[in-house]
């Protein structure tokens, strides 16, 4: 074999500097490249996560969601190698794959994401499903507060039958992401800019449901979080002061008590550390039938309550 070429199943390819610098010279198949990719990433992400990341990368590269087990005889162009190189470099800098590929999956659809918004979590899917489970034949109005990528609002719009859904956020950059997702999914959600802690006058009353996944992580909890979250996900959407952990819940619940229809429902994603305190807060503000719900990991992650009927 010459110094500048290698064999990859379907043909002779020019060796890319990426392979000389990062992969063993003997690499001659996609399977071997994949193994080296996982090896390099496992020290950062862990072996299981590295394997899952590699699978998603190959699916994106080869545009085939059923590509595994990975065939050896795949032609890799210079563009393919450039893609692998850029992805690996960014992953080694602990950047989340969702931001690199600019996509994340929520419920069963794809969302555009970037570092202006949180990456949607499975627990938040459960919150959406909880709301949908309680839906009856009446088409209600919904307000999603701290909407971020719009995942909750869009999940409800796609899966439920509601008369009107709005998403609210303080971040203009986040609202641009949400709006882009709404257009891509062709879902009619209204997007509103507002600081829920210092405003709310522009929010119309007589809404049936409010839902929010607000910032709830304590700054002291940061030591337990993966560096990828701390380095890349928006701090404004994550953290609250240790001295005031229920900051957003108090503001939202108090405003909801004035704006929701009689009998209206307020749903929250919550910090399990303060589940009982958040429940008591809602009860003290005047909500009835306040209920905590565990997520798939057994943590008290969701909460809902209802205003009294008139």
Key phrases:
alpha/beta, Rossmann fold, 2 domains, two-stranded antiparallel ribbon, 13 strands, elongated, disordered N terminus
Topology:
Blueprint: E1 5-7, E2 12-14, H1 17-22, H2 30-45, H3 47-62, H4 78-92, H5 97-101, E3 104-106, E4 109-111, H6 122-133, E5 141-145, H7 151-159, E6 164-169, H8 172-185, E7 189-193, E8 207-212, E9 217-218, H9 227-232, E10 239-240, H10 247-259, E11 260-269, H11 275-285, E12 288-294, E13 300-306
Parallel strand pairs: 5-6, 5-8, 6-7, 8-11, 9-10
Antiparallel strand pairs: 1-2, 3-4, 11-13, 12-13
Helix pairs in contact: 2-3, 6-7, 10-11
Description:
The protein is of the alpha/beta class and 310 residues long. It contains eleven helices and 13 strands. The chain has two domains: 89 residues, no CATH class; 201 residues, Rossmann fold, CATH 3.40.50. 40% of the residues lie in helices and 20% in strands. The strands form four sheets. Strands 7-6-5-8-11-13-12 form a seven-stranded mixed beta sheet, sandwiched between helices. Strands 1-2 form a two-stranded antiparallel sheet. Helix 2 crosses helix 3 and helix 10 runs parallel beside helix 11.
For the record, the CATH class of the largest domain is Alpha Beta
User: How many alpha or pi helices?
Assistant: 11
Distance between the termini: 83 Å
Annotation, overall tally of beta strands: 13
Order of helices and strands: EEHHHHHEEHEHEHEEEHEHEHEE
Shape-level CATH architecture of the largest domain: 3-Layer(aba) Sandwich
CATH superfamily of the largest domain: Vaccinia Virus protein VP39
Q: Beta-strand level of the residues, as a percent range?
A: 15-25%
Oligomer: single chain
